[in-house]
């Protein structure tokens, strides 16, 4: 399967999770499950966009009263009248424009200044959105701005899909989890990396366990997994004697959606669904290869479960040296450089330096040459 096909398959195979209602403050990182529509016009009334004087007709104007934000003047202006007004205050009926404070001169109850053009510095009722307009479509990931928008549109709750719950099983007898590794051993990078990546992709890690390379230990950990929607297994995805995952999936009557991908690094990745409707994502044990595989399968799967569309990947010219492999996509870290990207060194299968300091991953097609455009996997996609 090509790298592009694997992303699409991982996304389309997922069935969106059940919806729930939550307060906007509790919705950060979740996904809208229905269009967010405003319940009243925005603005809800004619609003002053400047501090100054709301005037009617040509001047000079007779000062009638003061209008402040949250305290409207109840009257109406006649030609030759004005009210002092604050930004955000309701503009009284009859006003033709707002004269900014810095352009006005006031003597007792008389105000003079240039006549503002009709509607100048007035935000009209409904000019941003009419009642019932869609403010954000279904599938939008909720961030701080959308929370503020929901409040502006008079929503005390929003309808969302929850975060996918992910259990991480890190396999390998050679892994140390603290200190400098002993000879023949290595520090575990994926145990710390994957929960952070899951959070970046909009999910929640509900379990993190380390599994020895021993027969049936992986199967035992699977039985212990509680309420996870996805189980991520690192290592154990190849066909060696200690690689248990494929045998476990076969014994469990799992349905495989992706089984190896024509890309480097990360090609032994896999995606399967268990009869219990739980998903399994198999990642290589090498850290950078595992990161590539997770961005290829886990990210799109989580987007599908959350009801988000598959992220569209921008194209940018990529410069640098990368070893081509016929028929395979090469995933390399890149950094912005003006209107193009440069390949960042340090991206062997087990080395994360390039990914750590780069801005994105570029998916170089098999026929890529230095300077050709390539799709970019941005953080969170």
Give the name of the CATH superfamily of the largest domain.
Answer: MoaB/Mog-like domain
Report the CATH architecture of the largest domain. Answer: 3-Layer(aba) Sandwich
- At the first level of CATH, the class of the largest domain is Alpha Beta
Mean pLDDT: 93
Indicate the low-confidence ranges by residue numbers: none
Structure, described:
The chain is an alpha/beta fold. It has 4 domains: 3-16 and 163-306, MoaB/Mog-like domain (Molybdenum Cofactor Biosythetic Enzyme, Chain A); 20-41 and 127-161, Molybdopterin biosynthesis moea protein, domain 2, CATH 3.90.105.10; 47-123, Molybdopterin biosynthesis moea protein, domain 3 (Molybdopterin biosynthesis moeA protein, domain 3), CATH 2.170.190.11; 315-377, no CATH class. Helices cover 19% and strands 29% of the residues. The protein has 7 helices and 27 strands. The strands form 7 sheets. Strands 8-5-7-6-10-9 form a 6-stranded mixed sheet, with no helix packed on it. A hairpin with a 5-residue loop joins β21 and β22 (279-283). α1 packs parallel to α6. The radius of gyration is 29 Å and the shape is elongated. The model has no long low-confidence stretch (mean pLDDT 93).
């Amino acid at each position: 399967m090509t790298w592009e096909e694997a992303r699409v398959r991982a996304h389309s195979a997922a069935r969106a999770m059940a919806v729930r209602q939550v307060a906007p403050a509790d919705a950060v990182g979740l996904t809208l499950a229905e269009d967010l529509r405003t319940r009243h016009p925005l603005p809800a009334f004619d609003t002053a966009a400047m501090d100054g004087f709301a005037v009617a007709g040509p001047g000079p104007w007779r000062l009638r009263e003061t209008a402040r934000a949250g305290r409207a003047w109840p009257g109406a202006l006649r030609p030759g009248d004005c009210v002092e007004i604050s930004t955000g205050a309701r503009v009284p009926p009859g006003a033709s424009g707002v004269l900014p404070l810095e352009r006005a001169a006031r003597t007792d109850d008389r105000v003079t200044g240039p006549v503002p053009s009709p509607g100048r510095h007035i935000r009209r009722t409904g000019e941003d959105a009419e009642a019932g307009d869609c403010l954000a479509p279904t599938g939008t990931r909720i961030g701080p701005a959308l929370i503020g928008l929901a409040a502006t549109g008079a929503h005390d709750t929003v309808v969302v899909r929850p975060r996918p719950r992910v259990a991480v099983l890190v396999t390998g007898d050679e892994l140390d989890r603290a200190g400098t590794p002993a000879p023949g051993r290595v520090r575990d990078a994926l145990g710390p990396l994957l929960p952070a990546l899951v959070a970046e992709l909009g999910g929640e890690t509900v379990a993190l366990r380390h599994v020895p390379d021993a027969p049936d230990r992986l199967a035992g950990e699977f039985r212990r997994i509680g309420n996870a929607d996805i189980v991520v297994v690192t290592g154990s995805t190849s066909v060696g004697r200690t690689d248990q995952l494929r045998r476990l999936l076969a014994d469990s009557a799992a349905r495989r959606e992706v089984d190896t991908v024509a890309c480097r690094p990360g090609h032994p990745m896999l995606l399967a669904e268990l009869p219990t409707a739980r998903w399994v994502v198999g990642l290589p044990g090498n850290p950078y290869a595992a990161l590539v595989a997770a961005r290829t399968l886990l990210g799109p799967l989580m987007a599908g479960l959350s009801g988000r569309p598959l992220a569209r990947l921008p194209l940018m010219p990529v410069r640098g040296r990368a070893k081509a492999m016929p028929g395979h996509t090469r995933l390399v870290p890149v950094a912005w450089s003006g209107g193009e990207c440069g390949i960042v060194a340090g991206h062997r299968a087990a080395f994360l330096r390039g990914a750590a300091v780069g801005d994105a991953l570029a998916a170089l097609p098999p026929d890529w040459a230095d300077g050709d455009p390539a799709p970019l996997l941005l953080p969170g996609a």
